[in-house]
Design brief:
The chain has 151 residues and is an alpha+beta fold. The protein has helices at 36-46, 56-61, 71-75, 77-85, and strands spanning 4-9, 27-33, 90-98, 107-117, 122-128, 133-143.
Amino acid sequence: MAIKRALFNYVSVSRYSSTSLLKTGDKLKQTRIFSTQDLVDYSKVSFDANPLHLDPQYARDAGFSDILVPGMLVASFFPRIIATHFPGAVYASQTLNFRSPVYVKEEIVGEVEATNIRGSKDKYMCYNNTGVVVLDGEAMAVLPTLCPAQP
């Protein structure tokens, strides 16, 4: 099976069925709520012990309403969306712009749109349940097939 390259722009919901091939304009979407335990687990694996992510009082003293979800933990949501629909996908590159804080127990929506098949780079975004963009950038993934799996 030939390896295909696809780029993703995080925008809206899927319009394809499990029997169709991925096309430019097709969209993927997932939601996620990060828990305090997710932050503790991430801190252990990443060795990121920033008190903004673990200490509510420290976060409030710094001007935030609660502890923050680490930006890289939020960014890990994008390869998850791609791999859910395309098992075996290789996440090849990514750039990130952290636009707004993400808090524990806040629903985050990650949306992916295929904007260029066999291209170089395109844009994506992630937003919270009030529609505020919290993260955007560019990504490229190498897909084992253009036929998406059912998530």
